[in-house]
Design the sequence.
């Protein structure tokens, strides 16, 4: 390794290039299970999220980020609050992985969460104004 930049795309290709915010195995950030109690992985996404909240409140942001990410992955990216909290913490920690490619993945998660919330909460109904003729 001489430190020079190579243009060989195969060498620079990261397994996260084909990100699917709905759970592509190749796109998931790696969770280090050795850092946490084995019982954590047997719990529901909601329970894992609550544990992540305790780490966050204790200002243990690196661990909170991983726990929120695990909750997000375990819910198949449906527990939006866990997903966005993991993204928020990675953004504050500037923890986007190899060549910063995790940033694009995180923005795709934010985009999918936003679209789902708009679809869920946005309803437009025309109500007749009885004062109009």
Sequence:
């Amino acid at each position: 390794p001489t430190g020079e930049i190579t243009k060989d795309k195969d060498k620079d290709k990261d397994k996260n290039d084909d990100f699917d915010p709905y759970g592509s195995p190749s796109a998931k950030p790696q969770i280090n299970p050795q850092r946490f109690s084995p019982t954590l992985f047997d719990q529901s996404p909601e329970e894992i999220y609550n544990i992540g909240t305790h780490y966050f409140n204790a200002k243990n942001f690196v661990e909170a980020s991983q726990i929120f990410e695990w909750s997000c992955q375990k819910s198949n990216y449906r527990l939006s609050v866990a997903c966005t909290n993991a993204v928020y913490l990675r953004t504050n920690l500037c923890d986007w992985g190899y060549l910063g490619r995790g940033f694009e993945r995180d923005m795709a998660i934010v985009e999918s969460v936003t679209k789902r919330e708009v679809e869920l909460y946005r309803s437009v109904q025309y109500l007749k104004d009885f004062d109009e003729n």
About this structure: The helical segments are 9-12, 45-57, 61-74, 80-93, 102-121. The mean pLDDT is 76. Residues 65 and 88 are 8 Å apart (CA to CA). The radius of gyration is 19 Å.
